[in-house]
């Protein structure tokens, strides 16, 4: 599952420590899947399935020693005896509880392993949205449409863990917000992606002009040349990398899952993917064997550093939500 690093201008867990959360997410995902699968194979009722209790981040164990359930979560029961360490862990209580608060809402028991995988994947998608819209102290309001966004879900659920996804991020450039399309930072390149989607089997006729033509049946309409925003995005991202002296390739992709793109004179530096080639292209992305790379982290961090964030205190947000519920 590609990791949703930034969604619009929502506050993101990854903003706090990009070097930490990707590896934590991968470990947590593997651990919880194995645990869930083992319980299912042993006949447990998954509608009552809950994550191991992390309410108490510091617990007393035999012999008066202490340990953090963070280690238990990953199967490493490691004593902590130093008082300074104990104080530090205690200070991080709420943070660790929230970081690993993956609590699936399972409403039915799957009958086969494929159903179990699909159920687990759906729960992880919601967990990713949480990580991409909240931190320990802050929270952003998530537009419900992103829960139903099939492209976002497809990227997040089907691409490898080593892909870092920026979904329509808003960056601050010269004190002004700039809305971009999709950025995918893979271990080998930064993919700038602009999406063309309309009615099924619509045809987009491209040219070097300011406007393209969209044909849907007998109807023709004009739309702004999508390469304008794609080229702008590529220049912005490349400029960010150059400013940080990050040597990382930036590539441009124009894609349409359900339509046709007809542009014989397309620029050589733009890869065009439409419904005729989308499945093959997407399948190739799924097979990336390259692990997370340090240059990839630097590239993603450089983008995160100038991302705009709009959020509110979690305490205020919870009070507001409770007030809305009471009014209903």
Task: Describe it.
This protein is of the alpha/beta class. Helix content is 38%, strand content 20%. It has helices at residues 13-16, 21-41, 69-73, 83-91, 93-99, 113-131, 150-158, 226-243, 278-286, 294-304, 314-327, and strands spanning 3-7, 59-60, 66-67, 79-80, 138-139, 164-167, 170-173, 176-179, 182-185, 190-195, 203-205, 211-216, 219-224, 250-255, 260-262, 270-273, 312-313. The strands form five sheets. The chain has a six-stranded mixed β-sheet, sandwiched between helices. A four-stranded mixed β-sheet has the order 13-12-11-15, with no helix packed on it. Helix 2 packs antiparallel against helix 6. The radius of gyration is 22 Å and the shape is globular.
What is the approximate shape? globular
Can you count the beta strands?
Answer: 17
Order of strands side by side in the largest beta sheet? Answer: 1-6-9-10-14-16
What share of residues is helical? 25-40%
Structural category is alpha/beta
- Rounded to the nearest angstrom, the radius of gyration is 22 Å
What's the quick description here?
The chain is of the alpha/beta class and 328 residues long.
Supply the key terms.
328 residues, 11 helices, four-stranded mixed β-sheet, six-stranded mixed β-sheet, 38% helix, alpha/beta, 17 strands
What is this structure's SSE topology?
Blueprint: E1 3-7, H1 13-16, H2 21-41, E2 59-60, E3 66-67, H3 69-73, E4 79-80, H4 83-91, H5 93-99, H6 113-131, E5 138-139, H7 150-158, E6 164-167, E7 170-173, E8 176-179, E9 182-185, E10 190-195, E11 203-205, E12 211-216, E13 219-224, H8 226-243, E14 250-255, E15 260-262, E16 270-273, H9 278-286, H10 294-304, E17 312-313, H11 314-327
Parallel strand pairs: 1-6, 10-14, 11-15, 14-16
Antiparallel strand pairs: 2-3, 3-4, 5-17, 6-9, 7-8, 9-10, 11-12, 12-13
């Amino acid at each position: 599952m590609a990791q949703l690093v930034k969604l619009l201008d929502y506050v993101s867990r990854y903003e706090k420590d990009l070097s930490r959360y990707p590896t934590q997410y991968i470990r947590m995902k593997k651990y919880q899947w194995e645990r869930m699968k083992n319980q299912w194979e042993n006949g447990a009722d998954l509608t009552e399935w809950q994550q191991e209790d992390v309410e108490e981040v510091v617990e007393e164990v035999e012999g008066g020693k202490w340990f953090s359930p963070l280690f238990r979560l990953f199967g490493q029961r490691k004593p902590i005896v130093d008082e300074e360490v104990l104080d530090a862990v205690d200070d991080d209580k709420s943070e660790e509880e929230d970081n690993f608060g993956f609590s699936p809402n399972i409403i039915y028991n799957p009958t086969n392993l494929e159903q179990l995988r699909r159920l687990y994947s759906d729960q992880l998608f919601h967990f990713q949205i949480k990580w991409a819209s909240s931190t320990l102290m802050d929270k952003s309001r998530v537009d419900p449409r992103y829960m139903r966004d099939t492209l976002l879900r497809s990227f997040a659920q089907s691409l490898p863990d080593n892909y870092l996804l920026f979904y329509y991020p808003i960056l601050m450039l010269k004190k002004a917000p700039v809305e971009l399309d999709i950025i995918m930072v893979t271990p080998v390149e930064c993919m700038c992606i602009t999406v063309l989607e309309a009615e099924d089997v619509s045809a987009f006729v491209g040219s070097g002009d300011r406007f393209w033509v969209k044909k849907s049946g007998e109807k023709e309409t004009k739309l702004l040349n999508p390469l304008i925003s794609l080229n702008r995005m590529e220049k912005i991202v490349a400029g960010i990398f150059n400013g940080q002296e990050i040597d990382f390739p930036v590539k441009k992709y124009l894609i349409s899952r359900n339509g046709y793109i007809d542009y014989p004179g397309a620029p050589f530096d733009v890869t065009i993917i439409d419904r005729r080639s989308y499945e093959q292209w997407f399948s190739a992305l799924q097979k990336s064997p390259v692990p997370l790379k340090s240059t990839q982290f630097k590239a993603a961090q450089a983008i995160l550093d100038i991302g705009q964030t709009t959020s509110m205190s979690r305490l205020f947000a919870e009070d507001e939500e409770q007030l809305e519920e009471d009014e209903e």
